[in-house]
């Protein structure tokens, strides 16, 4: 049976216990699965990755893989895990190719395999044209892609990515996620920190929402997608204040401060009555614009946290 990465009751604080980054985090990460970690800035996502990687030690709790404690033996973590940090290391004095080659050598790839593996990665990421460009002359997006390639060359069983698509153009964002899927399909454990909830919806298998160091939600994204498909968002723009009492019963409304824009969360069986109400208000010339769409993940996220 392929090994899971298990995190149990993990707690990490800073400033002599005055600031808690992670509080009683318990998670399982499975081979063949892409797990997305999301949450506000400061929610504890990067701190969790650093503890898994063995570069930060938890105050309490355990991290185990293949029966080995990665807390007690952090040097073993670095054999099992590769991590793409949030901020890439400066690529000064080396070309894109040389940066990737350096990591390949550290991981013990033979010279013959190295050439093939590097060619395959740069081809998949579509960065061949910059292969011999000095790192300091690469754009931010290309430096990010170089960091990604350095992480996945000769990939170990566990791969951690901290906001890998930041600064990357829309086409290569898709390429990165497709590459992550290929790695997952070959049995790797993939953990991705991201703020892009639309990418989470589309590409991740599991979704973990952190808020103030605690897990707010941990579930498969197909369950989340079903929840979202079972509800809709009605956006209404008015030219004057409306009486909420005129609306159909049992409908959740979020009204902007000026009272002229409404976000209305609807179960699918509430849509006909809600649209009937909108059409009546249009005839009364109180609603000037409306739209109906599937309920977005980012609004669900805001509803589960404070913002």
UniProtKB/TrEMBL annotation:
Is Transport given among the entry's keywords?
A: yes
User: What InterPro entries has UniProt attached to this entry?
Assistant: AAA+_ATPase (IPR003593), ABC_transporter-like_ATP-bd (IPR003439), ABC_transporter_ATP-binding (IPR050763), P-loop_NTPase (IPR027417)
EC assignment: the record states 3.6.3.-
Q: Which PROSITE patterns match?
A: ABC_TRANSPORTER_2 (PS50893)
> Which controlled-vocabulary keywords does the entry list?
ATP-binding, Hydrolase, Nucleotide-binding, Transport
The keyword Transport belongs to this UniProt entry's keyword annotation: yes
Listed GO molecular functions? Answer: ATP binding; ATP hydrolysis activity
Which residue numbers delimit the ABC transporter domain? 5-237
Similarity comment text for this entry: Belongs to the ABC transporter superfamily.
What is the recorded name of this protein? Answer: Daunorubicin/doxorubicin resistance ATP-binding protein DrrA
* Species in which this protein is naturally found: Lentilactobacillus sunkii
Q: Could you tell me the gene encoding this protein?
A: drrA_3
